[in-house]
Specification:
The protein is an alpha/beta fold. It contains ten helices and 15 strands. The protein has helices at residues 11-22, 54-63, 79-84, 86-106, 140-157, 190-200, 225-242, 262-272, 297-303, 311-329, and strands spanning 2-6, 26-31, 45-48, 67-72, 111-117, 128-129, 162-168, 170-172, 204-207, 219-220, 222-224, 249-254, 260-261, 279-282, 293-294. It has a seven-stranded parallel beta sheet with strand order 3-2-1-4-5-7-12, with helices on both faces. A two-stranded parallel ribbon has the order 6-15. Helix 1 (11-22) links the parallel strand 1 and strand 2. The longest helix is centred in the N-terminal third of the chain and has 21 residues, at 86-106. The two termini are 35 Å apart. The mean pLDDT is 95.
Amino acid sequence: MSVLIAGGAGYIGSTVASACLDAGITPVIIDNLVRGRAEFTDGRIFYEGDISDAGLIDRIFSEHPDISAAVHCAALIVVPESVADPVGYYEANVTKSLAFVSHLHRNGCDRLIFSSSGSIYQAEDGSPVTEDSPLAPQSPYARTKAMCEAMFADIAAAGKLRVLSLRYFNPIGSDPLLRTGLQLKWPSHALGKLIQAHQEGTAFPVTGVNYPTRDGTGIRDYVHVWDLAAAHIAAIEGFDSVLTESKPSIAVNLGTGSGTTVRELCTAFNNVVSTPLATVDTDPRPGDVAGGYTASDRAEKLLGWAPKLTLEEGIRSALEWIPVRDKMLND
């Protein structure tokens, strides 16, 4: 079996490709390398180009007629950048995705696994969300994900596609074999900021301590990227049992079920490193919210998936990836 992975040179896509290889599935990667890294495709079938390129998609299917499904991880994902350049984000994430599914349909591929996001939910008060919770995307980036989901669902309802939208929450860590990981040297998420503060020997600011959470600090749902990759394998292998002609589209949350507060993240970090990291309580930043997390009951019911790796394991693999990343990417 072969699977087309759009955005397969990026953080999530390359990790899914690694999981495919380990499961005996051949990943066929397409990536325009705007954010992806060619180094993450070494030894893998790779086509450099855009998902909207009709001729290239046709060529891929002609050369790999055994492709049975597509995993769509190709997107721009930086929230502040999306605010500054909404036109670019809607073009890259929505317009090109529409072209992509048109090319898939023309080539007889009706199985699509879409990388969606927990950021589409109205999750501001620290409470858990389910797939039926209200949607309220707060950035152009998040709105592109919600729009793609709606667009794909409409196309599926017309009988042109079946789509499983996997709503990721906060991926951390790397491929356990350190084949791939985050491309960025200094990622902007909380764990990246923790690692940076630890390396620089500075205190980590806990921004906001009076939220309606179990310890007053913001809460997020950190899920190991290798667990996310495992969910994709389960989705690929169980696709036809989850999606049928009568139910051609569905969304599934992928998270831990309990979430992690900022203080809990700091404690877990200090459990992993040899030199404890100091923290300092500060005021919330403008626009900060308590956050939220998800139960993954639907993922367990439909895909037989539940996260297996701990927060500490995610932190440890993120730390182990840093020297490998510096040597592999050299920038």
